[in-house]
Write a structure and sequence with these properties.
Number of helices: 15
CATH superfamily of the largest domain: Type I PLP-dependent aspartate aminotransferase-like (Major domain)
Number of domains: 2
Number of strands: 14
Oligomer: single chain
CATH topology of the largest domain: Aspartate Aminotransferase, domain 2
CATH class of the largest domain: Alpha Beta
Order of helices and strands: HHEHEHEHEHEEEEEHEHEHEHEHHHHEH
Strand order of the largest sheet: 1-9-8-5-4-2-3
């Protein structure tokens, strides 16, 4: 079975993890800081804070931006639930505006037209690896004093071009914070893992603080225990202070060793993904019942990292339900997936916030026809040919 996504692990990755296993540190060691520095350099950000998963990174983004009760956070409905859940975690109201019908990303015009005065932050998702129109989104958000959080979980290593200049996701001036995912199906992996990047010294400081239980060991930050005895005032090498209610969002040295090894191969991973997408696009161009992924503009196309290859299929024209089409592919050894169910229609969001069908018609229409086909660097040419052949004959 060819899955829709899969990690690519080689002997160098295994050796890196084994070396970490043999080191003095399994966690809280040097691999973590080294991975952060290398990742920050890759995307062009001042700070990188690595955490246990991307959901934790999104949660920390909310906390450091001081989003909370009484605030509204707007995101895309075409995303994994974490992009919205992070707002609910802090007591804010998660809200959604519609997507662009061509790129499947957050639509700046819909964002502007639906703006509510209590909106504190916008979470802009780089769906499938394609960055949304970040300058336009930032213009809308910042004109109202809102924070821009870029959910780059699909886009590690990718970027976009604007005003004649190339930018990396996470390394441009139109986001205050960017988050990334290192889940196995993403463009690179640490097993599980996530990253928060920012140019803000204060955001980075607070994210590191909250990542580790709200504890500090920095002497210049100490407040003291409030006692007046010598014993309580003494602050030796063992001393630490919990100054806020933090979380255990730490990651291990084993995972970061794998991440550092994967970073070296990320350019080749993305190159292979782009090559497969090009083969798919050419092969499916003449299928009247299938729409290949569209890009924001021609300049951006060369910078997309392509985490997903998501197409639109007119299942009615095929005379098949989506489930029937997926089963036909599966019977021939081709896996597929539906990404995503509109978040605003999930039972929790309908019950808690009253959202209903019709709120985001473009996203709802996209969902009705969406199908993601296999895309990962380890796919062989024969694998790609198998996918193409079986998609082309699915209506037969």
């Amino acid at each position: 079975m060819i899955p829709y996504g899969k990690q690519t692990i080689d002997d160098d990755d295994i050796a890196a993890v084994v070396a970490a296993l043999k080191s003095d540190f399994l966690t809280c060691g040097p691999e973590i800081e080294a991975f952060e520095q290398e990742f920050a350099a890759l995307v062009g950000a001042k700070h990188a804070v690595v955490v246990c998963n991307a959901t934790a990174a999104l949660h920390l983004a909310m906390l450091v931006a001081e989003v909370g009760k009484g605030d509204r956070v707007v995101t895309s409905p075409n995303t994994f639930v974490s992009s919205a859940n992070c707002a609910a975690f802090v007591g804010a109201t998660p809200d959604f505006c519609d997507i662009d019908a061509e790129t499947y990303n957050l639509c700046p015009k819909a964002l502007a037209n639906g703006w509510k005065k209590d909106t504190k932050a916008v979470v802009a998702v780089a769906y499938a690896g394609q960055s949304p129109d970040m300058p336009a989104i930032a213009e809308v958000a910042r004109s109202h004093g809102a924070v821009v959080i870029e959910d780059g979980c699909h886009g590690t290593g990718g970027g976009f071009s604007v005003y004649g200049k190339d930018y990396k996701i996470g390394g441009h001036p139109w986001a205050d914070i960017t988050t990334f995912s290192f889940h196995p199906v993403k463009t690179m992996t640490t097993g599980e893992g996530g990253m928060l990047v920012t140019d803000s010294d204060e955001y980075a400081r607070r994210a590191r603080h909250l990542r580790g239980h709200g504890i500090t060991r920095e002497a210049e930050e100490f407040i003291g225990l409030g006692g007046d005895t010598t014993e309580l005032q003494e602050q030796g090498g063992w001393y630490y202070e919990m100054q806020s209610l933090g979380y255990n969002y730490r990651i291990t040295d084993l995972q970061c060793a794998l991440g550092r090894s994967q970073l070296k191969k990320l350019p080749s991973f993305i190159e292979r993904r782009r090559a497969i997408v090009a083969q798919y696009n050419a092969a499916f161009a003449d299928l009247a019942w299938l729409q290949t992924p569209q890009t924001l503009n021609a300049e951006n196309a060369a910078h997309i990292s392509w985490h997903l290859y998501s197409v639109q299929i007119d299942f009615k024209a095929l005379g098949l339900s989506r489930s029937e089409a997926m089963q036909r592919l599966r019977d021939q050894g081709v896996g597929s997936q539906v990404l995503y169910i509109p978040v605003h229609l999930q039972p929790y969001y309908r019950k808690e916030f009253g959202y209903s069908v019709g709120k985001c018609p473009n996203a709802e229409n996209y969902y009705e026809q969406a199908l993601s086909l296999p895309l990962f660097p380890k796919m062989s040419d024969d694998d790609v040919d198998t996918v193409i052949r079986n998609v082309q004959k699915i209506a037969q």
